[in-house]
Design a protein that fits this description.
Blueprint lengths: L16 H14 L2 H30 L1 H11 L8 H16 L3 H29 L8 H39 L3 H33 L13 H23 L2 H6 L3 H39 L13
Helix pairs in contact: 1-10, 2-3, 2-4, 2-5, 2-10, 4-10, 5-6, 5-10, 6-7, 7-8, 8-10
């Protein structure tokens, strides 16, 4: 039932949002999404550093200034990535960028593409679990799709970071060019408003891309904005800020894990990222399933008292 494409997931067609949320919570437990998110978090961590090696090597061979620009882009990750984990990522990036060689370029590209495709394959498995479908695509097609979508998402993330950097530079330029103080402040605020609007739209596009390409559904419909994507993004932002606040006041990871504390923090953040992705997909899946069930009951195809596990 979850495979039926709807024109809009915002129209519940009479279904109660409370019922959707109740079904989503039960489905999360039934689908064991907490363990699925842990699996995805591991593969995200596994794919991160080979990707940085490849990116830094290409930029280092192209031009030193290009590598410096990419380093500035990565600084915007500090908005969501916990500080200890962010410092480790930046340090690794700088080390690999300084040691770029032609041999590392080739090996880094191969390792990055393969590792990243393995990470997206974990997302595919998780989405298939959420939508209650089995993977029927041939191995080469599923893995090829994973590689292509990973490259697409990498481009989107880079563009998103570039929007943040460009917006800050433009706002500063506008502020310096306008002589009137209040008018300059208003213009800079307007630029920042456009900047963050574009960044939010790009983030929605990334979630929608994952939700469209990851599950092996026979019938698909592209949705720019879905309830699952909106709640997933808000949950991801809230959990990222919450993790940063927790680490600021109660940084027990460094005490417990010592020098591995930053790695554990990064893995925890990846876990929360995977969980929010799966939560959004679960919400979308249950909306589709509930509407389909109600339609079948209204047409007499299902008895009114029928229900599917685990919702009985």
């Amino acid at each position: 039932m979850a495979q039926s494409p709807l024109h809009s997931l915002w129209n519940f067609q009479g279904a109660s949002p409370a019922v959707v949320w109740k079904r989503t919570f039960r489905a999360m437990l039934s689908d064991n999404l907490l363990s699925r998110a842990a699996e995805m978090g591991y593969y995200f961590l596994f794919a991160l550093f080979p990707t940085l090696v490849s990116a830094s090597t290409i930029l280092g061979l192209a031009a030193r200034q290009a590598s410096s620009i990419y380093d500035h882009l990565l600084h915007y990750l500090a908005l969501v990535v916990p500080s200890d984990a962010y410092a480790m990522v930046i340090q690794t990036f700088n080390q690999t960028a300084a040691a770029a060689t032609t041999g590392k370029l080739t090996l880094g590209l191969v390792a990055a593409l393969w590792s990243a495709s393995v990470g997206f394959a974990a997302i595919q498995d998780g989405m298939n679990t959420v939508y209650k479908v089995r993977e029927t695509r041939p191995y080469w097609k599923a893995r090829g799709s994973a590689i292509l979508v990973t490259v697409l998402l990498s481009v989107m993330v880079t563009v998103n970071l570039a929007v943040l950097l460009g917006g800050d530079l433009l706002a500063r330029l506008v502020y310096l060019q306008i002589g009137h103080h209040r008018l300059a402040i208003a213009a800079a605020i307007a630029v920042h408003g456009v900047q963050w609007t574009i960044a939010a739209a790009m983030l929605l596009l990334q979630f929608s891309t994952v939700y469209y390409f990851a599950p092996d559904l026979r019938a698909k419909r592209w949705h720019w904005v879905t309830p699952g994507a909106a709640i997933g993004i808000l949950g991801w932002i809230a959990s990222s800020i919450g993790l940063r606040a927790y680490l600021h006041f109660y940084n027990s990871f460094s005490i417990t894990y010592g020098s591995l504390g930053a790695v554990i923090v990064l893995l925890t953040w990846f876990y929360l990222t995977g969980l929010m992705l799966l939560l959004g997909a679960e919400i979308n899946s249950e909306i589709q399933a509930l509407i389909a069930e109600n339609a079948m009951k209204a047409s007499g195809e299902l008895p009114a008292e029928a229900c599917a596990e685990p919702f009985c």
